[in-house]
Amino acid sequence: MGLPKRRHSNTRTRKRRTHDKLKKLSLTKCSHCGATVLPHHLCSKCGYYKGRQIVVKKQKEKKKKKS
Hints:
little secondary structure, two-stranded antiparallel sheet, 4 strands
């Protein structure tokens, strides 16, 4: 296995690593409910995409307390 003959300088190492950074997520708001959603994705809260309902979400029923 080959080994480097000379040590790479800090500048050279950092130049190579400039593209290793993380990018920020671009989030948008759902047009129906206002939740944050990834662009071009279905809203997981209400099931809407581009103003149209794609998936019908079931509403959770509240349990009644026994008194």
